[in-house]
Amino acid sequence: METKFKIDLEDYLAYQLYYASTNARIKASRKITSRLVSIMFAFLGILGCFFSNIYIYISFFILAVLSGLFLPLYLGRIYKKSYSRHCEDVYKNNFGEESILTIEDDLIQTKSKSGECTINISQLSEINETGQHYFLQLLSGGAIIVPKNKLNNLDEFEVTINEIAKKLNIEQKINLNWKWK
Question: What are 100-126's pLDDT values in tens digits?
């Protein structure tokens, strides 16, 4: 099976955000950051109470509640902007470049103007599917990004991927409603 597609900034960004949203370490870091800010405001409010200033106590308590509610949303925007800059810096020479993905019995080959790569199918660790992309995760930590809306033969690709997953007992994570938060 052979397919052609072009990858742009949005595809690279989607992979970075998907990886960040499913990586336990990154998720824990985001939670800790927002909780620490709320705890800090609550602690400052308690200090205000010791100094007999009820206005400081109330102000910092309100800030603690508001930061607990809205800081995760704000941090999500900050992370997205940061990942977008990262993708622009690292992958800028690959935007719009046509890639050819060939899947054979035991090999996956990718070709583009920057080079050619051959990977044993046994090096796939998992197959992630979102509403817009397939991310073929490799044991080495890298991934092959396949944008669904840019494939010229999506149905054939899906059949091939499902066969590989069954044949090698590779975990398929299907999250069609995934969105960055």
Answer: 999 998 999 999 988 999 999 999 999
Secondary structure of 17-75 as H, E, C letters = HHHHHHCHHHHHHHHHHHHHHHHHHHHHHHHHHHCCCHHHHHHHHHHHHHHHHHHHHHH
**Whole-angstrom distance, CA of residue 41 vs CA of residue 57:** 9
Whether residue 59 lies inside any domain: the answer is: yes
Could you list the residue range(s) of the whole structural domain that residue 67 is in? Answer: 13-92
At residue 152, the 3 state secondary structure works out as: coil
| Numbers of helices and strands, H then E, in the chain | 4, 8
- 180 located within any domain: no
Pair 138, 128: CB distance under 8 Å: no
pLDDT tens readout for residues 141-173: 899 999 999 998 899 999 999 999 999 999 999
Place of tokens 């020479």: 93
Question: What is the C-alpha separation between 77 and 70, in angstroms, rounded?
Answer: 11
Collapsed DSSP state (helix, strand, coil) of residue 3: strand
Mean pLDDT of the chain: 91
Say whether 101 sits in a helix, a strand or coil: strand
Instruction: Say whether both 71 and 105 belong to one domain.
Output: no
Are residues 87 and 100 located together in one domain of the fold? Answer: no
**Domain co-membership, 55 together with 122:** no
